[in-house]
Q: What sequence folds into this?
């Protein structure tokens, strides 16, 4: 089955700890995105990448980092600099030059 | 100017009724307006989308109405069913190379049996 997988489903972070959220897609899409979702708010773009080894900051990139070493993978690291990391994190992908984005099932990050 | 304002925040409709969710935008450069449906604990999925060259698009029980002059667009769900209970997000994007989506704040719809 083609699609986007995110792992883990739930993730717990301790104070001062960096954690990495996984996103893998087998749709052969060039573009990938990371969004953060908070209750009562829409999805906010953290980072996006249109091609391997290249990525751009979104609207709320501070405290996050990404890498794009492979077309199918776009991991997100939530660093200790992100003071309010508790949220639902969504990964998406799309064909470049097409607007439709396909979302993964999400990872819920909680702070201990 | 990059915002998309969505209302209402929540909506309760009886089974068989019409659900209406509204969105407004400021940036006239937006040229793609999708609606996404999200069930609890899941990622959003594209429901229906429209471009500003048409005023209405219908897919089954779901219709987008688009008013370019008012910079507003809305989602109508006809014959609403309990299975439609979900959070709905409108969004907008500019057809440049990034295709970044700007999302509304979401509407939580509950359809009572």
A:
């Amino acid at each position: 089955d083609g699609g986007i997988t995110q792992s883990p489903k739930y993730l717990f972070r301790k104070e001062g700890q960096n954690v990495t959220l996984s996103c893998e897609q087998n749709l052969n899409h060039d573009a990938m995105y990371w969004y953060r979702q908070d209750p009562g708010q829409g999805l906010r773009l953290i980072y996006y990448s249109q091609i391997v080894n290249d990525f751009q900051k979104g609207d709320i990139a501070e405290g996050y980092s990404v890498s794009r070493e492979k077309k199918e993978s776009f991991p997100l690291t939530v660093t200790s600099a992100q003071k309010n990391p508790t949220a639902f994190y969504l990964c998406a992908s799309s064909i470049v030059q097409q607007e439709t984005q396909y979302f993964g099932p999400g990872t819920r990050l909680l702070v201990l | 100017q990059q915002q998309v304002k969505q209302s209402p925040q929540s909506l309760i409709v009886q089974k068989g009724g019409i659900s209406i969710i509204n969105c407004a935008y400021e940036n006239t450069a937006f040229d793609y307006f999708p609606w996404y449906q999200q069930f609890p604990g899941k990622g959003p999925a594209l429901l229906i989308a429209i471009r500003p060259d048409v005023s209405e698009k219908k897919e089954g029980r779901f219709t987008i109405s688009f008013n370019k002059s008012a910079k507003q667009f809305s989602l109508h769900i006809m014959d609403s069913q309990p299975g439609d209970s979900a959070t709905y997000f409108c969004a907008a994007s500019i057809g440049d190379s990034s295709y970044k989506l700007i999302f509304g704040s979401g509407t939580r719809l509950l359809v009572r049996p």
The two ends of chain A are 35 Å apart (CA to CA). The interface with chain B takes residues 4, 31, 40-45, 48, 50, 56, 58, 90, 92, 94, 96-106 of chain A (CB under 8 Å). The mean pLDDT of chain A is 92. The longest strand of chain A covers residues 43-51.
